[in-house]
Design brief:
alpha/beta, Cobalt-precorrin-4 Transmethylase, domain 1, Rossmann fold, five-stranded parallel β-sheet, five-stranded mixed β-sheet, 41% helix, globular, binds iron/sulfur cluster
C-alpha cells in the first residue's frame, strides 16, 4: 500500500458486509420494508397511511454512515474524531457518539479542538465536505482521513472550480453558513474565484436590480459579510456570473433564481453577449430532486388530510419537503416519533421558523389519510417509529407481519 492509501479513504473501507448487521439493527424498519413491498400504503380501520415513493436515506448518506461504521470497526483502538455532524439527523449523530466517536463541533461537540488532533487519530469528514483550508490543515497532521463527502457535492465543487478558472464569479443558491455551502465556496475561492451566496429570490432580486443599474452596486453588500468572498467588489465581480446551488435547495426556486440572474445579465450586457457573462448548471442532487418530486406527487393526489415530514430540524432538504407539502395540505415537520406527544398535541417546526411549536387538536377523530415522507438524512427506523406512534394514538395495532417485515 502507498502512504496515500493508508491515510486517506474516499470510499468504502472494504468492510460493508461486516457492518451490515449493525446498520440494519440501528436504522432499518419492518414497517417501512412492508410499505415498500405493498404499494406504499397501509390501511387500518379509520386510518390510511401513504408513504411517498422516494424518501429517507439517500445514496450519499448511506455511504457516509457506512464509512463511519467501517472506520469504527477498522480502527477499534484509535480515537475517531468527526469534524461536524456526519449528516443532519440527531439520532444518527447520537448513535455515532455512543460508538465512541468524538465530535469536534456542532450540537454534540466534545471537549476537544483541532489543535488536539494528532497522527494517531482517525478523522471523519462529513457528507457535506469541509472547506479546503480545513482539509489542508488535517492533511498536515498526518492523521488517517476518512472522507465521506458525497459525490454529488464534489460534482458542485467541480462546477464552481470551472467557473473560477474561466473568470466567472460563482453565485451559489444556498445558506451561507451551511456546511456544504461553506465547503463549496471554498473550492471556488481556492482557485482564485469570487463567490456570492443568495438564500432566496428576495436576495436574488437585490443582486439583479444592482446588475441592471436600478440601484447602487454597493447595496448588494447588505447581504452581509458571510455571503461574499474576501475582497468582493460588486462592480467587478457581478460582471460574469456562474450559478450553482447547494444540492438540497428547493429545485424550482434554484431554477427560477438562475433564470432571474440570466435575465438581469442579458438586460445589462445585451442578449447577444450573454454567453460571455452567464453560465448556469443545476446542481440539485438527484436524491433531493426525487424526494421533492415524490412529495409533490403524493400531495397532488388530493386525498391527504395531512402530511408528516420526518427529519432533523437543521436538515435543509427536509425543510424544503415541508414547504412543498404545505402548499397543498396541512403539513408538520417533526424530528422523530417523540414529537407526536399525544392525540391532542404535536410538537413541530413550521416553515422558516427557528424553534418548534406545539399545535393542539392536530389529530381529528374522523377517518384520516396521512401522507408521510422523510428527508435524505432520516433513517427508516425514524419513519417506522412515527407510523407506529400514529397508529397507537388512534388506538390501533400494527399487524405483526407488518412490524417484522424483512423486505
Ligand atoms: S442529499 Fe444529495 S448531496 Fe446530500 S448526501 Fe444525499 S445524495 Fe449527497
Amino acid at each position: 500500500m502507498t502512504m496515500q492509501e493508508t491515510q486517506y479513504f474516499r470510499a468504502s473501507l472494504g468492510m460493508k458486509q461486516e457492518i451490515a448487521p449493525a446498520i440494519a439493527a440501528d436504522y432499518h424498519s419492518g414497517i417501512v420494508n412492508w410499505l415498500r413491498a405493498n404499494g406504499h400504503e397501509l390501511q387500518l380501520p379509520g386510518l390510511r397511511i401513504r408513504l411517498a415513493k422516494e424518501f429517507g436515506f439517500c445514496y450519499g448518506v448511506d455511504k457516509a454512515v457506512d464509512m463511519a461504521y467501517e472506520a469504527r470497526l477498522k480502527f477499534p483502538d484509535r480515537r475517531i474524531i468527526l469534524t461536524y455532524e456526519i449528516i443532519h439527523n440527531p439520532s444518527v449523530n447520537q448513535r455515532l457518539k455512543q460508538m465512541g466517536i468524538v465530535f469536534l463541533s456542532g450540537a454534540l461537540k466534545d471537549n476537544i479542538t483541532s489543535d488536539d488532533i494528532g497522527p494517531s487519530d482517525v478523522v471523519l469528514l462529513p457528507a457535506f465536505g469541509v472547506p479546503v483550508s480545513d482539509l489542508e490543515k488535517l492533511r498536515a497532521k498526518g492523521c488517517v482521513l476518512v472522507d465521506t463527502t458525497c459525490g454529488s457535492v464534489v460534482h458542485v465543487w467541480k462546477r464552481v472550480e470551472r467557473y473560477a478558472r474561466d473568470g466567472y464569479t460563482s453565485l451559489v443558491h444556498g445558506k451561507a453558513t451551511h456546511a456544504e455551502t461553506l465547503a463549496t465556496v471554498s473550492q471556488a475561492q481556492n482557485r482564485g474565484g469570487a463567490t456570492i451566496v443568495v438564500r432566496d429570490m428576495e436576495e436574488t432580486e437585490l443582486v439583479c436590480d444592482a446588475i441592471r443599474g436600478k440601484r447602487p452596486m454597493a447595496d448588494v453588500m447588505s447581504l452581509g459579510p458571510k455571503a461574499f468572498s474576501a475582497g468582493f467588489d460588486p462592480e467587478l465581480h457581478l460582471q460574469r456570473i456562474g450559478v450553482a446551488n447547494q444540492t438540497t435547495m428547493l429545485a424550482s426556486e434554484s431554477l427560477a433564481i438562475a433564470r432571474r440572474v440570466e435575465a438581469a445579465l442579458s438586460d445589462r450586457h445585451g442578449a447577444e453577449n450573454l454567453a460571455a457573462h452567464f453560465r448556469s448548471f443545476d446542481t440539485i442532487c438527484s436524491a433531493t430532486q426525487e424526494r421533492q418530486d415524490a412529495i409533490i406527487a403524493l400531495v397532488e393526489s388530493g386525498d391527504l388530510d395531512m402530511a408528516l415530514i420526518v427529519g432533523g430540524y437543521n436538515s435543509s432538504n427536509t425543510g424544503h419537503l415541508l414547504e412543498i407539502a404545505g402548499e397543498k395540505t396541512k403539513a408538520y415537520h417533526i424530528c422523530d416519533a417523540g414529537e407526536l406527544i399525544d392525540r391532542d398535541r404535536i410538537r413541530h417546526r413550521p416553515p422558516g421558523a427557528k424553534e418548534t411549536v406545539i399545535t393542539e387538536a392536530w389529530l381529528p377523530a374522523h377517518d384520516l389519510t396521512i401522507g408521510i415522507t422523510a428527508g435524505a438524512s432520516t433513517p427508516n427506523r425514524a419513519i417506522g417509529e412515527t407510523i407506529q406512534r400514529l397508529v397507537e394514538l388512534r388506538g390501533l395495532v400494527i399487524p405483526s407481519e407488518v412490524l417484522n417485515c424483512s423486505g
